[in-house]
Amino acid sequence: MTQEKAHRAANPRLHGLDSLRGLAAIAVVLYHYTVGYDTLVQEHQPGLLQLFPNGHFAVNLFFVISGFVIFMTLERSSTLADFAVSRFARLWPPYIACAAFTTSVIVLLHFNPMKLTVRDAVLNSLMMNKALGIVPIDPSYWTLTCEVLFYAGIALAFFVLKIRQMEWACLAWLAVSFLARWSHFDDRHVRIAVVLDTEFCQFFVLGMMIYLITQRRNTWLTTFTALLAYLLNLFGPEFNPGNLKLWQFMLMSAAFPLAVWFIAEKKPRFLNVWPLLFLGEISYSLYLVHQIAGYWVIRTLENAGSGPNVSVLVAITAAIAAAACVRRLVEVPAQKGIRGWYRGLSSRAALREERLQPQ
Predict the structure, then answer these.
(1) Are the CB atoms for 311 and 47 separated by under 8 Å?
(2) Using CA atoms, how far apart are residues 162 and 292, in angstroms rounded to an integer?
(3) CA–CA separation, 101 vs 116, rounded Å?
(4) How close are the terminal C-alpha atoms of the chain, in Å?
(5) Taking a C-beta distance cutoff of 8 angstroms, is the pair 112, 106 a contact?
(6) pLDDT digits 0-9 by tens, 189-228
(7) Dist CA 345 CA 353 (whole Å)
(8) Nearest CA to 46 among 300, 306, 243?
């Protein structure tokens, strides 16, 4: 049995986390289709049912889950190349497919609320729009910059710097984040803060510490690191259009890692239901494809006389259908194909190395 298979046997898939991702994705979609639409496109027609007015905070839950899952993936990977290929296969193909779809909506339907240029569209392929300061094809893509930079940082610490007690790396990261917030970086330093993920690092760190706790590998340093990560939220959210109070934000910031811990530790069955699991499976594609295309659907329907609630419901249904297609036609086959190609390449390289060994 390979090392990866052994890890998978010891750490079976937590379907509850998939369901949690699905719920977070729906919260983000509902926020974008209500508050976000009013901000980026035009005001809704009267009578809109406001659900999840603070749904954008669900991205923080995504980051906690990423911290948990990516740390687990990191330890399953034998080399930096294993980890990099795994992440590339997971993220890039559906991203490019959804970006191409959204670009088609912008060009063919003449709907460009973000004022996207050709140059920015091309540079979006790097997933670094927030770090590069360019217009994203879809406004949601800013989180991908945070995710990719987190992957790069944790891989550097684990494979290059050979750090095994990850708490020390996390404490250094939190210290940089604290200094950035305390000194109130001006516009000249914003890009540095983005590259270092100073705004959201505490959520990634909390996910990593929860993983260590559920694996019974926690020490006092793990608890201390998790506590400092949580207290960093006392600075409050950078973006708070719903005027969420600090105590509410702190409560939410505690609930997210606790939910991940509960699922990993208790493995509740009530989350293992088909609708939630389905939303979890398509959550990445749904997140990528929903915003600009959904805005066009809502605007078209409302301008034609449809009520805002019906328009939002139709947009949600269309986004879920599109995400399911991307999942089935692009995400799954591309992931299998790239990983299969890499396993074959690794096997051939190992065979050549074995043949070159002196007998």
Answers:
(1) no
(2) 42
(3) 14
(4) 26
(5) yes
(6) 566 666 778 889 999 999 999 999 999 999 999 999 999 9
(7) 12
(8) 306
